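ok trying again, last paste got cut off:
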Amino acid sequence: MLIGELAERAGTSTRALRYYEAHGLVQPRRSANGYRVYDDAELRVVHEIRARLAAGFVLDDIRPFVACLRAGNASGEVCPDSVAVLRRKLAQVDDCIDRLSALRGQLEVQLRRQQP
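nice, full thing came through this time. structure:
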């Protein structure tokens, strides 16, 4: 399929696909006339990329998930490198929750001081 069809099927833009390609995440073939041609497997890759981006992952964190899919796995999260990224992301989320909880406590204290 050509880039426009992949973009439509994946619910994204051709610009985003070119961006993913520039970062080595999407791998089109080139036709004789230079057009980008994508296999159906690239649709799964693009869905994985978009899902991970929506969950707050950055492109470098997404690489192991894409590699896992390209290795023939049914899911991008079953490989050891992907699991390591998931663990690191979970630790980041836990840290953020702890910081927000501490801030919430500080705000509650400040509000209590203001009440008569």
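cool. The longest helix spans residues 80-114. DSSP finds five helices and two strands in the chain.
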